Each structure stands twice: as structure tokens, then as C-alpha cells.
Amino acid sequence: MVDLEKAISALASNNVEFVIVGGVAIKLHSSGYITIDLDFCYSRSKENIKRLVKALQPFSPRPRNFPKELPYIFDESTLDQATNFTFETSIGDIDLLGEVKGVGDYPAVLSRSVVFEIYGSRINALDLDALIDAKTAADRPKDHLVLPELHALREALDPNEY
Questions:
Q1: Total structural domains in the chain?
Q2: What's 22's domain CATH number?
Q3: What is the mean pLDDT of residues 136-158?
């Protein structure tokens, strides 16, 4: 289970541009969904990658299931080499997504987000419609399980639309 408070506080205090997109976003919308990691979409600008590395470095990120005996360097050049990463850290699993299937890249994701106040910080998370689009596009069994609840939450918020 990820230490969400430490992760969010580190990202927010380093002014990282990010939007929570996975199970934590679903929980923020009052779902009963249980998640063990933090998934977020991040701006791929050089400045933001620098802030992201500074925020997460204290937690020793390593690729998930990467052999422990092999060295790994988490730095700006590492994040420049790819878009999406699945890390295990000293505070739990954290996934960095440069784009979200069914929604798009960081600017598109940000435009489909809402602001929540958690742990004393204002953070963005995908809105319900974007979560539905992302979970539909991901098309995994665990996503199919949460879609009925997301639709029910959406309908409860705006019953006239359905």
C-alpha cells in the first residue's frame, strides 16, 4: 500500500505538475474501490521532470520487478528515455504516465480533471467522465469491475443527464 500522504506531499511541495488518474482518483470521487498504488499523469516538460525527480528521489524509485542486484539510476535522463514507468519505492508502488489511454497526454488529462484538497494540498484528479473513458480504453478485467460503480457515481451527481 502506497503512503499516499508522503507521495502527495512530496509532489505538491516540489510543485510537480501532475494529475492523479488511477484508483486513488476513483477513491477521491467517493468510490469504495481499493487500490494499493498511486498512478498519475505528469507534464513531460524539462522543468517538471526535474521537479519530479527531486520529489521522488528520496523514496528510491526502481522499476517494478527489476533485479535487485542490478544498479538503477533514477534521474532526469532516465525519465527522458520513456513516457510511462512503474516504480516500486520505499513508500509503495507509484506509476508515472506521460499519457493516459482513452484520455491523452498531460494537457488533455489536465483539461479533464477536477481539483481536490488532500493532505493540505490542492491536487488535480481525473473527473468521472475521464475516468470512465480511461477505464473503458484500458479494457482490463479490473477496469471492467469498477466501471458500473463509476457510471452509478456519475448518474448520482447528474441524474438529469441519464
A1: 1
A2: 3.30.460
A3: 90
